[in-house]
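Table S2 (continued). Query chain:
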Amino acid sequence: MSPMHPLSDPPPRYDAITTHQRAAPDSSSTTHVHTTTSNDHWQTLNSEYAALPVPTRKRERAGGRCNLLATCIGAILLVMFLAQNVGLMRCPLNDVSAQQKAALRRQWAQEKAEWAAEQDAHRADVDTWTRERAEHAEELAGWQRDLEDWARRRAEEEAHRLELERRSQGVYWTEPLGDPNCHAYGTRTYYSWLRDLPGDLNWREVCFNMPPVVVHGRTFTTPDKCERNGKGETIGTWYVSGGEPACVPRWGDFSDKGCIPGKPGYRRFVAPIEAVARGSDAQMMCATTPATVQGTVYDFPTACEWWGKRMMGIWEVPNNMRWGSC
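Corresponding output:
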């Protein structure tokens, strides 16, 4: 049985109004005519709505087919979308082939791996830099402590020096005395004695912190050596170079002794040391006297040896081809 049209019967409220109006015997004729006309109007509408077509089962089946078709089309489009994204089929709107997409994906994967490796290397570098920075900070702190210790010791030494200077105001050096013998080439030894040194002061500290001495018009501050003799006297020693012509010996004639056995490419030259001051150490004078051998200046010989009664200087020099091969 087909469902009834919603307007097949007039609304109850209009029926009630019509019944009510019809039941009023004392209503005016105008009102009765108006009510009758309204009732006729609703009857006309009901007959028109009754003539409208009612949906059938055939139309319901058509609507179900449309829904199924739309679902199939959506599923096909979804499959095509997924296939295009994984590179199984080509999109008509995209000119990049599936192989190219796959190659691009491999390239992106490689670049991603390289970027990850670079990131790991960067983290390792940061860790190394952080560790080195901590080590540097520790070294800097240690250096700062050492500097503070050095400054403290320097201040203590300076205070001690000032106290030593204050208490040794009456101490003085005697006139420097030169050794009659030469110490080395162009060098003579000079001595000076420390006088009026208080017994409670450290003689070595006073010796190295005394005012300078003057030799040959030149000023010499700290002694090269401070010693005490058997009498308890403090003696300062200076090695003065220059202004000592008596301490300047010379070399005699040079002799070429040929190639050196067991030392290819070298020749041996010898010469005697001459004009050595009486009483001076000939070995020391030989070992400190410069020479020019075959146009080359040497500050001292390779060796010094006694050949009989003569002190000989020996030089081992690179062979010059004009002397022949060695």
